[in-house]
């Protein structure tokens, strides 16, 4: 039997072979075209795993590697831009610092110039002040040489409070001119022993005989009577007696004690009227008044004056005077006195006003001391001190000799003026001043026996004759 072939097989087999050949040809052509892309894989293959890990492409495909490299490049560019901007800022800041450095140098130069200008100005001011001080020194020297030692308008005398009288006529002293009295009689009898004529007057001063010669000389027995016959007890001022209503005739000027002692205390006087001399209501009709004298001291803290009564003088109606204590009792009562003063309210310290010459003495002494120190400093600034090998110190003149001499002269002159001022002022003067006319109270601390001296001294003689003459003239 004859086998018949299938026609479909005859068609499909050639088609399959053709398709297989076409696929083989296409695969060969694709291999040739992709061959150039293999080198990156070969390049990456040559890198070690550590290097691939450092690059961040380990295990990545070529596309991933490309993206990674592009991102890294962008980062590098951004960092480069940032560094460029930072460099620009640094350059700008550097320029600013250079400009500031130049400004600081200019400021330093300006400050140095200002300091030099101030130094020059101060030097000129010091020179002007020095010239002014020298002019003041010359003016003070001229004033000291021309002005008198005592100031007539000074409220408080300087030094110890007393200026001795100079017999030589000086500048500022009033000259005394003697004027012959009109009632002087020509002298025709010479004084025995002297050979000079003595002037005569109708009534001699303090003479008990009148011009008519009516009074007769007293006998020696009447001129020197005994004490018992001369003194008659009249009144007694007991201890702790108080004399109120008294009035200060002089100012109370109490110096403040220095180291517990009063130097040259000032005296005072108190007037006591007739109506005040009473004790326990008993009047003293024959006593016209009394004068109390004493010394004063000051209290700076309380601003008041304390008065110590040393003596009292009683004046009777007929002119007889009696001073207590007597001459024999002065030694016992000179220390403590016979009484003390108080004001009308009983305060044993009378309020007053403070007076002191410290405001003029201390600034003047300070100025003289300052100028003395300035002269020493000026003289010493021109010298240089050196220490020798043996331990001694030697000084040598290395500066301006004229300024050194000027400083030495200024120092010596100020030292002499300071010494003169200390001798004149002696010490600072502080006192309490109470004006005259103050109402005070006198307190008696010792018993005072007021005796009437029949042959004692009187303020005025011939009182009765004068009183009768006045009465006759009044009747006429």
UniProtKB/TrEMBL annotation:
<keyword id="KW-0175">Coiled coil</keyword>
<feature type="compositionally biased region" description="Polar residues">
    <location>
        <begin position="206"/>
        <end position="225"/>
    </location>
</feature>
<feature type="coiled-coil region">
    <location>
        <begin position="80"/>
        <end position="143"/>
    </location>
</feature>
<feature type="region of interest" description="Disordered">
    <location>
        <begin position="206"/>
        <end position="232"/>
    </location>
</feature>
<dbReference type="InterPro" id="IPR021207">
    <property type="entry name" value="Integr_conj_element_PFL4705"/>
</dbReference>
<protein>
    <submittedName>
        <fullName>Putative exported protein</fullName>
    </submittedName>
</protein>
């Amino acid at each position: 039997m004859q086998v018949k072939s299938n026609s479909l097989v005859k068609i499909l087999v050639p088609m399959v072979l053709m398709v297989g050949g076409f696929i083989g040809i296409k695969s060969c052509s694709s291999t040739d075209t992709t061959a150039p892309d293999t080198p990156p894989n070969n390049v990456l293959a040559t890198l070690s795993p550590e290097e691939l890990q450092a690059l961040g492409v380990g295990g990545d495909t070529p596309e991933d590697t490309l993206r990674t490299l592009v991102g890294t490049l962008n980062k590098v560019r951004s960092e480069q831009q940032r560094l460029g901007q930072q460099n620009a800022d640094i350059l700008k800041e550097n320029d600013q610092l250079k400009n500031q450095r130049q400004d600081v140098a200019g400021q330093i130069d300006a400050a140095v110039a200002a300091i030099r200008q101030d130094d020059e100005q101060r030097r000129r001011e010091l020179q002007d002040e020095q010239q002014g001080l020298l002019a003041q020194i010359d003016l003070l020297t001229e004033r000291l040489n021309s002005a008198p030692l005592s100031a007539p308008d000074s409220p408080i005398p300087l030094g110890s409070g007393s200026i001795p009288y100079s017999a030589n006529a000086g500048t500022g002293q009033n000259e005394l001119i003697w004027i012959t009295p009109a009632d002087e009689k020509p002298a025709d009898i010479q004084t025995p022993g002297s050979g000079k004529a003595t002037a005569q007057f109708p009534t001699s001063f303090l003479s008990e005989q009148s011009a008519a010669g009516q009074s007769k000389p007293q006998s020696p027995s009447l001129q020197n009577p005994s004490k018992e016959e001369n003194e008659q007890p009249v009144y007694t001022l007991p201890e702790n007696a108080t004399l109120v209503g008294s009035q200060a005739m002089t100012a109370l000027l109490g110096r403040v004690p220095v180291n517990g002692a009063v130097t040259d205390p000032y005296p005072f006087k108190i007037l006591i009227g007739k109506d005040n001399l009473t004790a326990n209501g008993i009047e003293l009709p024959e006593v016209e008044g009394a004068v109390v004298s004493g010394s004063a001291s000051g209290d700076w803290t309380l601003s008041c004056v304390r008065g110590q009564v040393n003596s009292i003088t009683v004046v009777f109606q007929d002119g007889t005077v009696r001073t207590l204590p007597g001459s024999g009792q002065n030694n016992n009562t000179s220390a403590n006195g016979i009484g003390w003063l108080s004001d009308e309210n009983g305060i044993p310290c009378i309020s007053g006003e403070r007076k002191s010459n410290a405001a003029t003495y201390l600034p003047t002494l300070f100025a003289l001391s300052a100028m003395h120190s300035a002269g020493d400093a000026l003289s010493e600034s021109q010298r240089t001190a050196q220490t020798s090998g043996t331990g001694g110190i030697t000084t040598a003149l290395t500066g301006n000799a004229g300024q050194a001499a000027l400083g030495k002269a200024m120092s010596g002159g100020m030292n002499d003026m300071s010494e003169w001022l200390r001798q004149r002022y002696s010490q600072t003067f502080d006192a309490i001043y109470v004006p005259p006319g103050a109402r005070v109270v006198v307190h008696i601390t010792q018993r005072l026996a007021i005796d009437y001296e029949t042959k004692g001294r009187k303020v005025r003689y011939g009182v009765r004759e004068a009183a009768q003459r006045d009465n006759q003239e009044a009747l006429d």
